[in-house]
Amino acid sequence: MADNSSVSAGGDLREERRKSIMEAAIRLFAERGYHETKMDDVAELAGLSKGAIYLYYKSKEDLFCALLEEKARQLLPTLQSVAERATSVEGLVSDLVYTQLTLRQDNMDLFRIFHAQQPRADLRWQRSFEQIRLHLEQFVASLAEAFARFLPELPAEECRSLALELLGMLNMHTVDWLVRKDVRPLVARAEVITRHFLYGLEGIRRTQAVHGACRP
What span, in angstroms and rounded, lies between the C-alpha atoms of 17 and 54? Predict the structure, then answer.
């Protein structure tokens, strides 16, 4: 019977290899795209044999989907915690914009991969993208709840729209940063995005106040 230290060492080695595969896959998928990346290339960059790769992932498709699912699971708690710990709507927007841009900048290869690929018809891809969609929906719901907490005068659907609009602004700025090959860090745009969003939000609040005052 193997002692606990041997079992632990084996588990650590397996996890270390899995991380090496993931890191190599992220880099290659981002640089070459899904179709041009070969499992041989992933194995070489990870410092493993091709056979070893298949002990962890049965196909390139399985590796790609597992990569997206794992990263989505890792990032969601960080984003949700920002929404939950906010003490004002201004702080919520400012902290969320900064955190989102920082995460995107630190995981830019993943962002490129996700936006370059479209879901395919087979079941594995559909299941993977559905999980990512559910993670995103959880975050949108958390953000909408945070807006509702600070803006009780707004209907729930409008708070959800605010959450979607903020994410839309972040997406547009991220894509613009990539396309223009901006030499500044992506997070340098945080102040401008925050200011513009809060300016628009103030207009919504003033309009809502006027409508409320006009009601009999």
Answer: 12
